[in-house]
């Protein structure tokens, strides 16, 4: 790549850092739209395995300051390690309306969506809230999330999530990717009007809207099922609303291999869904681009100063975003390592289409659809 090309990328990278910081500051000033009518709500929690912190994650959804919340737990097999946790909570809260479904039926390749399809029959209420099992919330979550659904023009409400490390180095690096790569990028996209996707952290919608888009059958074979659901809602002419409420994603990565598989799966999914946009995301790798520019310049004194400036801007942006959005701020010295790992994942995402998800190998086809057949393990 020429010096001019790297210089252009470097300017764009600095502009990205500035823009994402502004987007986070604007988002932080938004009020939370709380619901006034307090309609009854069914919360769907698809489960798979006894991940670290599962009991407290699920408990946080049960203990809501809200008059009528039904919780629906779903697993696909009677031997699932999440099942004893769900049963323990049901016994602990006998007064709470909690349903538990065990159903192996799968009508598509996305097994989480298959679980949700099976669970839907047990949901009693018109307002449905879906949230992944590794999320944790406070007691105002339901009140703070479903408020925008009072507007008939709103088809779905979704929430961003922040990474809370649950473990050692790999968990910290995983949380940093969420907090200082995914989160700022999503907020910038929302500010520029290029976002609009839904996130598995929370999707709230009316049952009637789900039926109008064709139910969960619409996303049975999609790896990025949350984003595709948002697309389907917008096709009805309804809005997907980003809530100001941010849920907690408790990140527990036991090893480098686990972290690598997760992030490679996300990267290959995004690349399959939006190849041009994903290629353009190279500008988010500010420090790496600056180091490359310095290498092309023979690591001259001026180019080394640019590396220092990029590192300072990166740390400043991360610090501002962390403080305004109440993100974990410890360990920011790891940002260069985190950014190097992110760039390695970015490059590796172009070297195949296979992903390992929930112990099963899939191939991500163009557009983000899943097929079970893969050419080789990831």
Task: Describe the structure in your own words.
- The chain is α/β, with parallel strands linked by helices.
- It folds into 2 domains: 3-26 and 281-367, no CATH class; 32-261, Alpha-Beta Complex (Spore Coat Polysaccharide Biosynthesis Protein SpsA, Chain A), CATH 3.90.550.
- The chain has 13 helices and 11 strands.
- It has helices at 3-28, 54-62, 83-92, 111-120, 141-145, 169-192, 207-212, 225-235, 256-273, 275-280, 286-296, 301-325, 335-348, and strands at 41-46, 69-75, 98-102, 127-130, 135-136, 154-165, 203-206, 239-251, 354-357, 360-364, 370-371.
- The strands form 2 sheets. The protein has an 8-stranded mixed β-sheet with strand order 3-2-1-4-7-6-8-5, with helices on both faces. Strands 9-10-11 form a 3-stranded antiparallel β-sheet.
- Helix 3 (83-92) links the parallel strand 2 and strand 3.
- Helix 1 (3-28) packs across helix 6, helix 1 (3-28) packs antiparallel against helix 11 (286-296) and helix 9 crosses helix 13.
- The longest helix is centred in the N-terminal third of the chain and has 26 residues, at 3-28.
- The protein is globular.
- The two termini are 29 Å apart.
- Mean pLDDT is 88; it is low at 374-378.
How would you sum up this structure in a few lines?
The chain is 46% helix and 17% strand.
Structure class:
alpha/beta
Report mean pLDDT, rounded to a whole number.
88
Helix content: 40-55%
Shape: globular
Let me know the number of strands: 11
What is CATH's topology name of the largest domain?
Spore Coat Polysaccharide Biosynthesis Protein SpsA, Chain A
Count the DSSP helices: 13
Q: What does the main sheet amount to?
A: 8 strands, mixed
Across the major sheet, the strand order is 3-2-1-4-7-6-8-5
């Amino acid at each position: 790549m020429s010096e001019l090309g790297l210089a252009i990328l470097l300017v764009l990278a600095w502009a990205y850092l500035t823009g994402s910081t502004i987007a986070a500051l604007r988002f932080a000033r938004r009020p939370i739209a709380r619901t006034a009518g307090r309609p009854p709500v069914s919360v769907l929690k698809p489960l798979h395995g006894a991940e670290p912190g599962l009991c407290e994650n699920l408990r946080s959804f049960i203990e809501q300051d809200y008059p009528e919340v039904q919780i629906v737990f779903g697993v696909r097999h009677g031997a699932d390690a999440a099942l004893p946790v769900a049963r323990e909570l049901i016994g602990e809260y006998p007064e709470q309306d909690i349903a538990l479904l065990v159903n192996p039926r799968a009508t598509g390749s996305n097994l989480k969506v298959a679980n949700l399809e099976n669970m839907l029959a047990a949901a009693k209420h018109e307002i449905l809230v879906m949230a992944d099992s590794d999320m944790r919330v406070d007691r105002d979550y339901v009140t703070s999330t479903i408020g925008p659904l009072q507007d008939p023009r709103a088809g779905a409400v979704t929430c961003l999530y922040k990474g809370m490390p649950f473990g050692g180095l790999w968990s910290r690096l995983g949380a940093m990717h969420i907090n200082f790569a995914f989160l700022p990028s999503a907020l910038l996209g929302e500010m520029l009007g290029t976002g609009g996707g839904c996130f598995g952290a929370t999707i709230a919608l009316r049952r009637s809207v789900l039926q109008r888009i064709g139910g969960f059958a619409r996303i049975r074979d999609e790896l990025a099922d949350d984003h595709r659901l948002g697309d389907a809602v917008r096709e009805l002419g309804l809005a997907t609303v980003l809530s100001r409420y941010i849920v907690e994603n408790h990140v527990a990565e036991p090893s480098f291999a686990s972290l690598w598989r997760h992030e490679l799966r996300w990267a290959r999914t995004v690349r399959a869904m939006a190849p041009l946009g994903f290629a353009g995301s190279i500008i988010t790798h500010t420090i790496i681009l600056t180091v490359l520019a310095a290498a092309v310049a023979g690591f001259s004194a001026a180019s080394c100063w640019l590396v220092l400036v990029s590192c300072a801007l990166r740390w400043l942006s991360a610090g501002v975003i962390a403080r305004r959005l109440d993100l974990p701020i410890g360990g920011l010295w790891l940002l260069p390592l985190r950014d190097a790992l992110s760039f390695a994942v970015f490059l590796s995402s172009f070297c195949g289409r296979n992903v390992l998800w929930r112990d099963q190998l899939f191939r991500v086809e163009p557009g983000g659809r899943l097929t079970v057949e893969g050419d080789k393990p990831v």
